[in-house]
Amino acid sequence: MKSSIHPNYFTDVPVQCTGCGMSFVTQSTKKSISVHVCSKCHPFYTGEQKFIDTKGKVEKFQKKMEQAKVHKVKLDEKKAKKAGKGGMKETKSLRELLADI
């Protein structure tokens, strides 16, 4: 094995969670590690829904969802208005057509 190509390995590396403040020690090639979510505050482990928004992505997504709801309501109104004009005829099944004969 070559001696100069392997990274330095640190045995006591502090890991700090920015979400809840928990810290623990592990081993790594980095001197310190910072994470946004750990096992103490992750929704999968806690069962609680929690938004961790670092760049406004949650608000942007919620805004898009509201716009989609408004658009769907407008689209449904447009379809109802178009159907109310009488342009659409009620379709009958084969059984209903044969019953009329």
What topology emerges from the helices and strands here?
Blueprint lengths: L9 E8 L5 E6 L4 E3 L7 H4 L10 H28 L9 H7 L1
Parallel strand pairs: 1-3
Antiparallel strand pairs: 1-2
Structure in words:
The protein has 101 residues and is an alpha+beta fold. It has 2 domains: 1-49, Irregular (Rhinovirus 14, subunit 4), CATH 4.10.80.400; 53-83. It has helices at 43-46, 57-84, 94-100; strands at residues 10-17, 23-28, 33-35. Strands 2-1-3 form a 3-stranded mixed β-sheet, with no helix packed on it. It is elongated and about 90 Å long. The mean pLDDT is 85.
Relevant terms:
elongated, 101 residues, three-stranded mixed sheet, 3 strands, Rhinovirus 14, subunit 4, alpha+beta, 3 helices, 2 domains
Number of helices: 3
CATH class of the largest domain: Few Secondary Structures
Low-confidence stretches: none
Average pLDDT metric: 85
How much strand content do the residues show? 15-25%
Give a brief rundown of this model.
With 101 residues, the chain is an alpha+beta fold. The protein has helices at 43-46, 57-84, 94-100, and strands at residues 10-17, 23-28, 33-35. Strands 2-1-3 form a 3-stranded mixed beta sheet, with no helix packed on it.
